[in-house]
Amino acid sequence: MFGMFLPVVLLLSLVASVPSPSKAPHRLCRRCCDHLEPPEGSTARTATPYQVPEVRTYINMTILKGDKGDRGERGTSGKAGQEGQAGSQGPMGPKGSKGQAGPPGDPCKTQYSAFSVGRRKALHSVEYYQALVFDTVFVNLHEHFNMFKGKFYCYIPGIYFFNVNIHTWNFKETYLHIMQNEQEKVIVYAQPSDRSIMQSQSIMLELEQNDEVWVRLYKRERENAIYSDDVDVYITFNGYLIKPSVE
What we know:
- This protein is mainly β.
- About 10% of the residues lie in helices and about 30% in strands.
- It has two helices and 13 strands.
- Strands 3, 5, 6, 8, 9 and 11 form a six-stranded antiparallel sheet that branches.
């Protein structure tokens, strides 16, 4: 008999354990109505509010980087800075070794100037100074000696040698100067004598360009003359360049 009632007892206990469909269970998670307060006296737990995650924008610049552009124009130069102070002089360096000898110079670049002129006529002094003019040319390189004026003109600055030779006149004084421009440099002199003689004078002069060298006969304060004739040349004037200033 007990075996007949056992299935009935198990069925009743199973039915008692199933919840009633009219009584819904409590839910703790709320979304749309989280702002509503729970009813008074309710024992339901307050759900934690849902927080919206923060969104930050991030741009990958490596994706947006374009091609390298052309080089721009050069900008204007800046102002120059102030000049610094000069440094102290350094010690003298060691003496260098002797260099090799250079090649021979070009002979075409060597400079020359020379003249030699003479006079065949005698000359007496007058009331003023006069240049001794010549009528015979022996040498007149590059025409540096002006025959019309009786003057040598310097076209190549440097050191020159000059020489004058004259023949005195019997019983007459001989009085001449070698001139550089208007300055007396050396004298050629002979006292009156019953015999005529040859007189000579030489000098070396350092000349600048356009300097003039000539022979001047002294003016008439006493009888003053030089002798010559048409047969022989008694009077000569010579000059030549020894060393130019610039080689």
